[in-house]
Amino acid sequence: MERLKTGIAGLDELTEGGFPAGRSVLISGACGTGKTIMSMQYIYKGALEFNEPGVYVTLDERPSLIREDVMRFGWDLKGLEDKNMINIVDGSIAKLGMPSEEEFSLPVTGYDVDKLLLEIMRVIKRIEAKRVVIDSIPALGFNFENTGEVRKAILKLSYMLMRSGVTSVLVSEIQEGVNKFGKYGVEEYVVDGVIVLHYMGVGTQSNRTMHIRKMRATNHSEDLHPLDIGKDGITVRRIEEEYGEV
């Protein structure tokens, strides 16, 4: 099976070389666990190191703030955007009926899943993208009246991304300690892989951890792995590296 290297240090070794190509992976976790950093690292490193164009769809944070935040890791998004290796689709303020200053954005009339998919597919075709990130799935629920409608939207989104041939990452939110892997309890069933990030907050050497809950067609690690956010982004470590042999 063809695999895409993630660009996330330490992760590919745990997944037989990377994410299965053409599949979708859910990254979920509570606030502050590193979801946005991990998903942007996947897009940025893919473009910079593996020559694979990527589309980053932000439904929560303004693109200008994302560009500013990731400069702490030395990630020059604007430089890669100018080369059409990365395109950012702004859906962060469309739901408020406000215009975006970004080149790629959703209409000020708000958005539904069809408008979102139309813009995503347009940008995928424009740069021949290999990678897509949707950050985040819970933002899709803004205009829906019930969870059933949200679930249909997630299913449609996941199916269309699969049809386009990209390897996609969907970001979702969960509360720490809650026994589910996505906000709506359906995300984990429509994707091919699930990576759960935790923030332990117990004063150990590494407060953040990562667990690969599932990865289809992959002999993946089932351990809880320490996760560091450093000057170069996210690094996933083996438990024995962090705490020594047990």
Shape: globular
What's the number of domains?
1
Number of strands: 11
State the low-pLDDT regions, or none: none
The strand order across the widest sheet is: 5-4-6-7-3-8-9-10-11
Q: Do you know the CATH topology? A: Rossmann fold
> Helices and strands, in N-to-C order?
EEEHEHHEHEHEHEEEEH
Brief summary of the model shown:
With 246 residues, this protein is α/β, with parallel strands linked by helices.
Model description:
- With 246 residues, the protein is α/β, with parallel strands linked by helices.
- The protein has one domain (3-239): 3-Layer(aba) Sandwich (Rossmann fold).
- The chain contains seven helices and eleven strands.
- It has helices spanning 35-50, 63-70, 77-82, 113-127, 147-164, 187-190, 239-243; strands at 3-4, 19-20, 24-29, 54-58, 86-90, 131-135, 167-173, 193-199, 208-215, 224-230, 233-236.
- Strands 5-4-6-7-3-8-9-10-11 form a nine-stranded mixed β-sheet, with helices on both faces.
- A hairpin with an 8-residue loop joins strand 9 (208-215) and strand 10.
- Helix 4 (113-127) runs parallel beside helix 5 (147-164).
- The protein is globular and about 50 Å long.
- The mean pLDDT is 89.
